[in-house]
Input
Amino acid sequence: MTADVPNASTASRATDRPGDASPFALGLLLRRAHWRAAAVMSEALRPLGVELRHFAVLIVLVNEGPTVQRDLAAATGSDKAGIMRVVDDLERKGLAVRKAVPGDRRARSVEITPKGLELFDAAHVAAEPLAEGLVAGLEPGETEQLTDLLTRFAHSAGLQT
Output
């Protein structure tokens, strides 16, 4: 049994520090980058009265149009109960509405409202200076390079979640 377990003194310790060679390093670094970006974007959304979980649904609705709740859950990485709470919040705020799906009495489609579109646009205006601050430490051209690399990484043909 001990032959299958790497010697603890020689095994790489997983960190997100620069130069870490651990197989977990990239995931940990992406997690840290996500936390930083999420905190900045949450700051932009707070005055508008929504959270990232709400905005994630609005993004799907803007990109895809009316969407059934189960597809919203899949697109945002939420579960059924979580997406129902988010859609309830959006409806209460007048940002989205549920509508019956013809031919399926149980399914509900969610659609963004004009007020939701206004908030969506206002969020982008509010986020612009904060997003610029997020990448302020990068050299000219690096923001575009980072965006390109992350886009290719996130949308690669490999494992999709």
In short: Residues 25-45 form the longest helix (21 residues).
